[in-house]
Design a protein that fits this description.
alpha+beta, 3-stranded antiparallel β-sheet, 19% helix
Length: 68
């Protein structure tokens, strides 16, 4: 039986939401393997002087836990 664990991460990008999600996968992949899926829970932006400065994605990353 496979066990799947889910963690929540927030990633950002200066270019857009799609890159923010890619950045989440890239960063999580550096320390976690067996990633099955990413659920984008929410989006957000940071604004300065009336302009968007960064795009953020709040993601739930699901991955299979290795058998002992």
């Amino acid at each position: 039986m496979a066990i799947v664990k889910v963690i929540e991460v927030i990633a950002s990008s200066e270019k857009g939401f799609e890159e923010a999600v890619r950045n989440a996968v890239t960063e999580v992949s550096a320390t976690i393997h067996n990633i099955d899926s990413v659920y984008v829970k929410d989006f957000k932006v940071h604004v300065k002087d009336g302009k968007i400065t960064t795009y953020g994605a709040i993601c739930k990353v699901a991955f299979r836990v290795d058998k002992a």
